[in-house]
């Protein structure tokens, strides 16, 4: 029937239009807020840095430390208190970071409600008595409700108790770690640019071959999103494996240079942001427009590689965290250099950790994220390496170290094919 043929024709036109649209115009992932790809500066709201409390009860709360987030605090009823947690701006993805410390004049037990504006409870609280060693809150001491708040039972005394969405891995911690790596292994630290709030965007260059030796380049980025601490821990274990005093790592550093930017969003990490940088922008949506100083600095540092015949980018890894272990490789039908590299290292990694599930979700290369920029600029294969928010910390480091071993072996084999 002509009318049904016409219907199929219309459907075909519609689908063609849709598929063109999906490959040309990226407007955000399903979990992104509207307007995420408009990366021009937005206004952000600063939290007041202060120690406040209910003097009559002698209960105190503070956000006066790096990486803290706590916007307001008050007593709701006899033993119920409320901490209000707000993002740096909104709309924003639901990754509500909080971090604060509490104490009381005399030992007492309170109920504390975490009440989020523009978000719902997500991160299981980690507790610490010294800000360094952390434990997960006991499951009997937390109750979540359907409205998106969580209520914690906390034992307070005159010594501070840190309560944090994840253990703190602050700007200062990351810089101290980079310093420690650079004193142990020949590593050059450079400031490639400055964030909105004038914090340095630091690059670690690791490698030990003479500059004119033909070398591959491995690009590593991390911490574009401040609360993603497990991704930060994995990136450190990964880089430590590359800089280790082992035969494999030594050989690797002769054939490959590692260009690493492990703290892409220093302002967001220092200010306890939920996701954005100092101008309220998701940096991992700015790798097309480059409106932000952090992404621009890294782009401008990497671009000259294309002018250097003695350097070639082989691979890019961008570390993140989410609700499970996921690798986002480039779709297999898209041709990369080296071909299908991600798929070839994930397989042996999964074999080594059969009890740890890794999801592999291939993606198109149209979104303005770091991995895709690496591919589009250098033709190289690249991956987004997402670590489970709740991953066992020892295990995630072990997995990351093993991933580094496999990647080093595979990259060396690739380079041998093209001496
Ligand atoms: Zn992320």
Automatic annotation (TrEMBL):
GO terms for biological process: proteolysis. It holds the Pfam family Peptidase_M14. It comes from the Bacteria. Residues 1-22 form the signal peptide. SUPFAM superfamilies: Zn-dependent exopeptidases (SSF53187). The active site is at 386 (proton donor/acceptor). One of its GO terms (molecular function) is metallocarboxypeptidase activity. Belongs to the peptidase M14 family. PANTHER family: CYTOSOLIC CARBOXYPEPTIDASE, CYTOSOLIC CARBOXYPEPTIDASE 1. This is Zinc carboxypeptidase. The lineage of its organism: Bacteria, Pseudomonadati, Balneolota, Balneolia, Balneolales.
């Amino acid at each position: 029937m002509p009318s049904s043929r016409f219907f199929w024709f219309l459907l075909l036109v519609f689908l063609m239009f849709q598929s063109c649209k999906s490959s040309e115009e990226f407007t955000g992932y399903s979990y992104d807020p509207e307007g995420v790809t408009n990366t021009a500066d937005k206004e952000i709201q600063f939290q007041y840095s202060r120690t406040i409390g209910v003097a009559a009860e002698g209960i105190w709360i503070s956000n006066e430390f790096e990486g803290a987030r706590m916007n307001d605090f008050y007593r709701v009823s006899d033993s119920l208190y409320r901490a209000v947690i707000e993002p740096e701006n909104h709309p924003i993805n639901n990754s509500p970071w909080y971090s604060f410390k509490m104490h009381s004049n005399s030992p007492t037990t309170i109920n504390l409600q975490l009440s989020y504006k523009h978000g719902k409870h997500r991160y299981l609280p980690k507790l610490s008595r010294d800000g360094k060693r952390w434990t997960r809150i006991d499951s009997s001491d937390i109750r979540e409700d359907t409205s998106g708040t969580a209520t914690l039972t906390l034992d307070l005394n005159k010594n501070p108790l840190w309560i944090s969405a994840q253990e703190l891995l602050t700007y200062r911690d990351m810089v101290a770690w980079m310093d420690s790596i650079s004193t142990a292994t020949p590593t050059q630290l450079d400031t490639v640019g400055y964030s909105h709030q004038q914090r340095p965007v630091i690059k670690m260059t690791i490698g030990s071959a003479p500059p004119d030796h033909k070398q591959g380049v491995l690009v590593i980025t991390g911490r574009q999103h401040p609360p993603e601490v497990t991704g930060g821990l994995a990136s450190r274990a990964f880089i430590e494996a590359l800089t280790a005093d082992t035969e494999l790592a030594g050989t690797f550093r002769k054939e490959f240079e590692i260009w690493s930017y492990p703290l892409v969003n220093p302002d967001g990490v220092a200010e306890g942001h939920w996701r954005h940088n100092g101008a309220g922008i998701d940096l991992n949506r700015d790798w097309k427009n480059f409106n932000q100083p952090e992404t621009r600095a890294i782009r401008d540092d990497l671009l000259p590689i294309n002018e250097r015949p003695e350097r070639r980018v082989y691979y890019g890894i961008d570390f993140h965290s989410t609700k499970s272990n996921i690798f986002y490789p480039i779709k297999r039908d898209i041709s990369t250099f080296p071909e299908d590299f991600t798929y070839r290292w994930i397989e042996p990694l999964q074999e080594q950790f059969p009890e740890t599930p890794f999801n592999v979700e291939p993606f198109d290369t149209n979104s303005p994220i770091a991995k895709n920029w690496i591919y589009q600029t250098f033709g190289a294969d690249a991956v987004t390496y997402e670590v489970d928010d709740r991953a066992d910390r020892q295990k995630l480091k072990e997995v990351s170290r093993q991933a580094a071993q496999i990647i080093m072996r595979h990259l060396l084999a690739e380079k041998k094919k093209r001496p």
